[in-house]
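Batch manifest, entry 17 of 40.
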Amino acid sequence: MDTQPPLTRHQRRELERQQRRQGEQRQGRNRQVRPVVGFLVLVAAIVGAVYGLIKLGGPAPTKVDLSPFFKGTLTSSQGRDHIAVGASHAPYATNPPTSGPHYEDTIPLGVYDEPQTDENLVHNLEHGHVWVSYNCSDGCPDLVTQLKTVVERYQLYILEPRKDNPQKICLAAWEYLDCFEEFDEQRIQAFFQQRENQGPEKLPPSAHKRK
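Output type: structure tokens
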């Protein structure tokens, strides 16, 4: 078997110089890459934080005790029975309803431009959602903007127009109701603070359907 002749002193020195040069080049590349990696990590953290705020519907509401502004009224329970879509049932005791027979499906959380079905929304209330509805003949775009500004600070909300409301604004949660005529931000926030996620059928955050 052939063997390589031993390196001469000159060849060994040249090999050592090449190895040192390659090591210096690697160190130089590492010094250039490290600031770039650090910058990318910072950008990713910022993007993640912004995405989290958007995903959650904006910054969380200020943790202020708004209980003095809570005007919700406890209503009598009409049970939690599931019924087939379109099936008849006893009239709801409140308007909007806050409990009683309801369809098996909820609707995704979010803001709606068209009225949704009461029997679906009662199931949303069972899951701890807050149902915010408004009734005005002209569509009240200014009021809708105000309501959106408030409800989108929270997690478990439905906002929709509803012509059957007895007053301009109604807030419904499981077995609680508050209806009034004029926009009142603190009153709405107090209702969310007291009744959001207080339904009898609690779900983990990932299980709540969203638009």
